[in-house]
Amino acid sequence: MAGGRRRARIRDLSPEPAVAARQAHDLCLRMLTDRARTRHELNEVLRNEGLTGEIIDSVLNRLVALRLIDDAAYAESFVRSRQRAGVAKRSVTRELHAKGIAEPEAEAALATIDPKHERETARLLATRRAARTVGMPIEARRRRLYGLLARRGYPSDLVRSVVDQVLGEAQEDDREVQDLDRFDL
Fold it and tell me: Which parts of 49-114 fold into alpha helices (H)?
């Protein structure tokens, strides 16, 4: 176990191509029961097992034909999942490319991201974080919110406007509370 991950293995890889192909197929099925994977991810695993390109291609083509590997569906699901986690389109794009998703599938999945929804997600993230920074100097709050949104991959112009909006609303709320405190209710 390297870094807390189990490494998929084919025990005693057979020199016989038909048996090695069956072993590779079984390994892929075991990995796919854990979670969906891209063709690229499975290709890398099989290459690391020492299988030939011919065997790898035949196994992966068979899995694609059976629709057990579907990079387009994977990309769509991945984009939805990352959006729910508050990750920006730019970061999701990088992650899709790292997973080996081809450009057409990645573009189609990324086209489902609504810029208004992305802005609203950024605002919600910043609002939650701003609530935890009440009482800090305004510049420290600003830096923390900038850092949060930048790490999530939001573009700097969006970060700037969202942080200004959230901190402006927070300052208004603080003034309202101070005004209410003056009226000893």
Answer: 53-65, 71-84, 89-98, 103-110
